[in-house]
Design a protein that fits this description.
heterodimer; A: 101 residues; mainly alpha; 3 helices; B: 162 residues; Four Helix Bundle (Hemerythrin (Met), subunit A)
Chain lengths: 101, 162
């Protein structure tokens, strides 16, 4: 059966792809997708450690809380992004870097 | 057979995640994110986390991904499905992400994880429900209030000048 290491390997790859996306993308929604990848990588680690620690369900609870936080974060972030678009007509995070127009 | 399915799901997850961050069309990125999230739900099934896998599909695929696609459509003047978005500094970003991966890989392959075996449970929903209302009651209530606050905040923010 696959070991803990294979799950940690997969989640490390997902995490680094998310970091890459956050660094290189300039569209705010694409940056948000990178953040989702990072959150999912962390979540895989929680659930994997939960299984390989004698099926201790604490990790599952943490995973649930992370999913709820991701939902809240996505809702608020998209509301902010749509407001930025209405005000500045762009969602390029470099163009929208100022605190006021 | 299980081994083959596991590595197939893992490869699907990683490759569509790479597609999310590398290709140049925003809608295609969102669709690739769909496959990544489904692959992660599959990994949860391999980790015996049936409830988390279901929640992953409900919340991520059914909720967050739809929100992201709404966001794309509301913030672009849609003329075609090809909404391009540029990446910058892919060289620097690639080097940073690659070395960070090497660092993580060395760290996780050298660490002595104290793994203890377990028997496969018949289902986790019952235990998670009991835990949520006993040991984790306070975090559960806090996250409920936070979710309510985030929903109200998002509604207020996106109403505009009313």
């Amino acid at each position: 059966m696959h070991s803990l290491d294979s799950y940690l390997f997969i989640s490390a790859m997902l995490f680094c792809l998310g970091i890459f996306g956050v660094i290189t993308r300039r569209n705010a929604i694409a940056v948000l997708m990178g953040v989702e990848l990072i959150l999912n990588a962390a979540n895989i680690n929680f659930v994997a450690f939960s299984k390989f620690n004698g099926m201790n369900l604490d990790g599952h609870i943490f995973g649930l809380l992370v999913i709820v936080l991701a939902a809240a974060e996505a809702a608020v972030a998209l509301a902010i992004i749509i407001n930025i678009y209405n005000n500045m007509n762009t969602i390029n995070v470099d163009d929208a870097a100022g605190l006021k127009q | 057979m299980t081994e083959f399915v596991f590595w197939f799901v893992a490869a699907l997850t990683i490759m569509s995640a790479a597609f999310v961050v590398l290709n140049n069309q925003l809608i295609y990125s969102a669709v690739a994110l769909l496959f990544t999230l489904f692959g992660i739900a599959g990994l949860y099934v391999f980790l015996w986390a049936d409830f988390i896998a279901g929640i992953q599909i409900l919340v991520y695929v059914g909720g967050i991904l739809v929100l992201v696609i709404f966001g794309i459509m509301l913030t672009n003047k849609i003329r075609s499905v090809r909404i391009s978005h540029k990446s910058i500094q892919q060289g620097v970003g690639g080097v940073i992400a690659f070395w960070f991966f090497i660092f993580l890989f060395i760290a996780l392959s050298k660490a002595p994880w104290a793994a203890s075996a377990a028997v496969e449970p018949s289902g986790t929903v019952r235990e998670i429900g009991i835990l949520l209302l006993t040991d984790f009651l306070l975090p559960f209530e806090i996250i409920s209030v936070l979710l309510l606050g985030a929903l109200i905040g998002a509604a207020v923010l996106s109403r505009g000048e009313a």
